[in-house]
Amino acid sequence: MGVGCWRNPLLLLAALVLEARLGHFQRWEGFQETSMSKTNMNSTLQFFMETYNNASNDTYLFQVDKLLRSQMQLTTGVEYMVTVKISRTKCKRNSTSNSCPIQSKKKLKKSFICDFLVYTVPWMNYYQLWNNSCLEA
């Protein structure tokens, strides 16, 4: 056995040392509890509500009533795992109003607790809904 058999283990050792020193730059630790930045939170919630309302058959629009939980994970972009309470508004689907109050009539009140996962590249204004589920509140 000559020097050649030591080359691969030495390269492996060098790679491991380099990884140990640089690993903190690329360590993705999974989802972390976070309060989203106001800009990212508003645009992510707006994207989710537009997607939800476009897919809904309800006569009225829904909007976020309360942000219950938000988690973030850095990947090639940013992933947000969010839990919100959404409620039916007084605005109908064809409404162009920017201000839609929550429905107050008892017969028309309806709320859901929704969990959703959005992948975003905020600096490119790119959003994609990866998963969502809503249960009546």
CATH architecture: Roll
From the spread of the alpha carbons, the general shape counts as elongated
pLDDT below 50 for ≥5 consecutive residues: which ranges?
22-27
Mean pLDDT across all amino acids: 83
Q: Structural class, please?
A: alpha+beta
User: Biggest sheet, open or closed, and with what strands and sense?
Assistant: 5 strands, antiparallel
H-E order: HEHEEEE
Radius of gyration: 23 Å
Q: Tell how many strands the DSSP assignment holds.
A: 5
What CATH calls the topology is Nuclear Transport Factor 2, Chain: A
| SS strand fraction | 35-45%
Keywords: Disulfide bond, Signal
InterPro entries: CSTL1, Cystatin_dom, Cystatin_sf
Family: Belongs to the cystatin family.
GO molecular function: cysteine-type endopeptidase inhibitor activity
List the helices and strands and how they pair.
Elements: H1 4-22, E1 32-33, H2 38-55, E2 60-74, E3 78-92, E4 111-121, E5 126-136
Write a concise keyword list for the protein shown above.
5-stranded antiparallel β-sheet, disulfide bond, Cystatin_dom, 137 residues, alpha+beta, single chain, signal, 39% strand
